[in-house]
Amino acid sequence: MSMNDNVKKVGNPFSVSRRDLLKGAGGLGAAALAAPFIGAGTALARPVQEDESVPFGMNENFGFPQPKKQSEIWSVDYAGNLWPGMRNGPALFAMFHPATGIHIEDDGSLKVADARNSVIRNISNLGDVTMFSGSSQQYPFKDGAATVATYNSPNDIDKLSTGNYVVGDRENNAIRLVMADGSVKTIAGQGNCKSKYNGDQVDARLAQLNRPLTLSVADQATAWHTQDTVYFADRDNFLIRKLVPNGDGTWSLVTVAGVPPTPGADPCGPLTYYPGATNGPVAQAKFRGPCGLVLSDDERYLYVAERDNNVVRVIDLMMGVVGTYAGVVMVGQGKGGYQDGPAATALFNGPSQIDSDSSRNLYMADRFNHLIRKITPSADPMKASMVQTYAGVPMESGRHSGPALKAKFYEPWGLSVDRNSGLVFVGDTGNSRVAVIGPFNLIWDAFVERINTARIAEYQLLMAEYMDFYRGSPERNAKRNPYTGEGLPGPSDDL
To answer: Residue by residue, what is the 3-state secondary structure of 201-250?
Structure first.
């Protein structure tokens, strides 16, 4: 996830008239095909007059009306064509399986952890999806060049001040260092022991982890961090941990908060775990299913979304204490609730990844409520003020673009906020897509750079394929090309 990146802003009145819309996929004009990426996924809400212009989008009726106010918050498709699979190319024809963690680059491009495909993808600011790192094979566990290295359900990606990246490689029980050329080096975890815990290590490569998830990188020279520090959730060990560089290419592993499991006589045998929801000193605090992490701007506070306690916790890294930031503890995956209002009484159901904007608001993927929630801060950094639904229809899954509170998601998991534009990018895992949420005019600003008339012929072919296979008859939908890896969309399992 990103704390300090940017989406370029350019004026954009890009539209297509009804006469072009009526030509359909086979006769789309150059203007229409120059921006085929904004996938509204919603039908026109009203008739369009012959001389009226509407924004062009890839959906049932090839367009959707602009809102009355350009500042209205909308959610639209950004990448992914609904069906899970592996395919590069123009963003809304590309396939993910599914998109989880997201990092926003300075130029507006995205790095996306594509979990079941076990690769890292790149979405350029021109709307092209390409492979960044990984061979798409899960076995054997391997470092090396971008096309040789393997991952097994990479979950999140963040960037170091050096320009390299760190990836939480969940099923390999490892943290990987990814260079700018996509080559991979393991910096923490072995991935070869069933017990998944052997304490802190001076050389983190000797450590055993247990499904390491979301990463948050501290890279500012503050009183608490003088060098890059990688925080991550060691989820199934119920711990929050960090990696600190040793200066020789290796990293030290240190537990930040939580009660470590107790190993038996056999280091690869059963462990005794200590999940819970206890607040207080970091060495006594307990967690249950920590999934999302984000640091405050001054890097003193670390906010933790807990899937199985259904709350957001906060760690004061200076004082060494843990508190509940928002929500009421309700134990169990998928056993939370839904309620907006004061943070102390708000209810969540499967808090997943979180990120913050420049005003200290937190945005959270509320997975089993199928929502994106916004958590407003108070004067006390240990206690939130209010919780509201930012996008989605409570407890209703689906895939629908449009005004944010009418939009639908299916178990959203990944989330990253652009700190300059305020746009929120969502890894909508059950829909195998990346969605973007924000003021309508800013969404258009992000999409206008995707104009590339030189590729019109390619867009036409892909649009024809899309119409044939995804908007065709049930008989055709039952006979999709096997090479694309297409299948029915569905919820993620154990993310």
So the answer is: ECCHHHCCCCCEEEEEEECCCCCCCCCCEEEEEEHHHCEEEEEEECCCCC
Taking the C-alpha atoms of residue 302 and residue 417, their distance in angstroms, rounded to an integer, is 16
Q: Which amino acid is at 447?
A: F
Nearest to residue 120, comparing CAs of 448, 437, 483, 427?
427
Q: Give yes or no for a contact between 210 and 262, defined as CB atoms under 8 angstroms apart.
A: no
3 state SS of 296: coil
For residue 140, say if its preceding peptide bond is cis, omega within 30 degrees of 0.
Answer: yes
The radius of gyration of the chain's CA atoms, rounded to the nearest angstrom, is 22
Which residue's structure tokens are 């992914």? 80
Mind listing the pLDDT tens digit for each residue in 270-324?
Answer: 899 999 999 999 999 999 999 999 999 999 999 999 999 999 999 999 999 999 9
The whole-angstrom separation of Cα 176 and Cα 143 is: 9
Name the percent of the chain lying above pLDDT 70: 75
What is the spatial distance between Cα 4 and Cα 441, in angstroms, rounded to a whole number? 21
CATH class of domain segment(s) 71-469: mainly beta
3-class SS of residue 73? strand
Task: List C-alpha distances in Å: 447 to 35, 39, 57, 467.
Answer: 8, 11, 11, 22
Q: CA 399, CA 312: separation in Å to the nearest integer?
A: 26
